[in-house]
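[retry 2/3] Acyltransferase: previous attempt timed out, resubmitting with same input.
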Amino acid sequence: MLQLNPTPPAPGRWRTILENDFFPKNRRRDIDGLRGLAIALVVLFHAGWLKGGFIGVDVFVVISGYFMGRSALMQHPFQPVRFVCRRLYRLLPALLCMVALVSAGMLWWVLQSDRADIALNGAYALVYLSNIWASGHVGYFQGQAVAYPFLHTWSLSLEMQFYAIIFIMALLLPLTRHRRLVLSAIFSASAAYCAYAWHTGDSQAYYNILDRLWQFALGTMVWMLPRPKLPPAAADAVYAAAVAVIMGAGLFYPLSYACPSWMTVFPCVAVVLIIMLPDTRVGRWCLVPLSPLGVISYSVYLWHWPGIVVANYLLFFQVHGAMMAGVLALVMVVSLLSYVLVERTGLDYEDRAPVAARNRGAALLVAACLGLAAVLAYISHVSRVH
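[retry 2/3] Acyltransferase: success.
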């Protein structure tokens, strides 16, 4: 029988692991800080304190494309099993934990109609099709969105769907020139599709992978673009302008600028400029201080929206002000615990486990997600019938 945590790391080992995570010497901390800025924008938007914070998702998408380009397309030779296992251990344990705990804590006392929808949304989230569920059930910026604690998983579903696309590319396109050609075609086709959706006013395109692929592809194409060679002062100026564009979008963008919209081009290009300009003083001053938040950004993203939704259910009114600040403070504590005890533990096991045990563990994680999804789908069905 597989033991997912056979030998707990010694305290000294955990300290080393966490120091390497939060204060790494072999990774660009300003990109971690950029992720921290993105999650801050999203959380403040959901808290009702920042009207353009939805742009944080666009920032995340470009960063994700950048990292997946390195993991899949820049590795020679590509290791498909390791790639899949790394993604599964990175994403599934924390998602499974969040959906299981929130479902166990909510489904037994909410209204029957809410139970049916919440359970079904949880089931779709566990199989990474939450964006499809959301597109047919609720507008992301509408008031009823606050009734669904798993609605935010739509973006995680988009990310996993992109992983599947880039995985296939890595398998089928061994030559770099072919990758560049295919990436360019994906970028162009998706951008054209997004422009069409914007022209026709398709609001549900916000959830559509086809409208977001150009953002993923833009991040991936960073690896294939020539690096600019700028004097330090010029690099600082460009970097500062890029950060200002992202901050300005978060502060001032109205909801009408949410994807699909040509206005999302500006923060996405700003992300590319930041990635292509390492070792700037502006990055060290502005983004590096946010890097610890970026390290736990996945856990923060998972837990912040359920925290807000549960608080609204329990208090019977729209949470805001000091109460919202208290909810977010609690969310940060839960997110840190989720990172250390669940997310980091899964990654540490994936690093240390023998290959056979690692692969069996990944299969067990998938089976657990499918099993819980089936249970939630059944709960949803029974709730609707009765």
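[retry 2/3] Acyltransferase: Confidence is low (pLDDT under 50) at residues 1-6.
[retry 2/3] clearing retry counter.
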